[in-house]
Design goal:
Layout (H helix, E strand, L loop, with lengths): L5 H10 L9 H13 L26 H14 L14 H10 L29 H19 L10 H12 L4 E2 L2 E2 H17 L11 H6 L33
Antiparallel strand pairs: 1-2
Helix pairs in contact: 4-7, 6-7
Length: 248
């Protein structure tokens, strides 16, 4: 199945390639705050984690079976190949775990009071479930579907081709899940996977800056004035995160 093979990574690389970058003063201020000048909110899941150490942090949200599902799913959305590590290797599961345990997972900034009408496609997801509730319900429902369809195997136990088949049916809205819409969940999972793959490493994903190296993004450097006029040129700069120092 072509949708989830190396062509997706090539598309990601081509579509998000870096032309020129301008870093504003506000970005610099945010970089300083992460060093500890400004305290983080009390929700522990919102605090940055030191993903540069390389080890997976303890789970904040996912159960063991849910983590196995996410590892398998993101590995098919952005697989490891000759271009480098994929979403799993980049720590996207850790990124999602932290986000779902924090304010995003609880939908703290969303209007969640209803009414709960279906809505149009342009209005987006109208579910009464928070992202955390959606992930939990969807993973359970997808594993149940897989067990009923593939000889009692959960999604994580399926062959890659079978996993691609399930993800394709979710993307096309061909799987009816109990309590949650499969298509809406797939769209959220794909979006969140891309976010984790391309976020600053302090948030748990983009481990070893795998995503930034793939697209040629040099990261959160202090000063880009020498490069802003070099439109369309490849910048020979190693990526720098908010908690790392430039090497050149």
């Amino acid at each position: 199945m072509e949708t989830f093979d190396v062509s997706r990574r090539k598309l990601l690389s081509a579509g998000l390639g870096l032309g020129s970058v301008v870093v504003s003063a506000s970005t610099t201020t945010q970089a300083r705050s992460i060093a500890g000048a400004v305290p983080w909110e009390t929700d522990q899941a919102s605090a940055p984690l030191d993903a540069l150490a390389g080890a997976s942090p303890p789970a904040s949200f996912f159960t063991a079976s849910e983590r196995a599902f996410i590892d398998a799913a993101v590995s098919r959305l952005i697989p490891q190949d000759e271009l480098g590590g994929g979403a799993k290797e980049a720590g996207v599961t850790a990124f999602l775990d932290r986000q779902l345990a924090g304010s995003y997972g609880k939908a703290r900034t969303w209007y969640m009071q209803g009414p709960w009408s279906e809505g149009t496609l342009s209005q987006g997801n109208q579910s009464r479930l928070t992202p955390a509730q959606t992930y939990r319900a969807a993973i359970k429902a997808i594993d149940s579907y897989c067990q009923n369809t593939f000889s009692n195997k959960t999604f994580a136990k399926l062959a890659e081709g079978e996993q691609d088949e399930v993800l394709t049916h979710l993307e096309n809205g061909k799987i009816e899940l109990e309590g949650v819409k499969g298509k809406s969940f797939f769209e959220a999972l794909l979006q969140n996977t891309l976010e984790g793959f391309l976020s600053d490493p302090i948030y748990g994903g983009n481990r070893d800056m795998i995503g930034w190296k793939l697209i040629g993004f040099p990261g959160t450097r202090y000063d880009y004035r020498d490069y802003v006029s070099k439109h369309g040129e490849k910048l020979a700069l190693s990526p720098v995160g908010l908690k790392t120092n430039p090497q050149d």
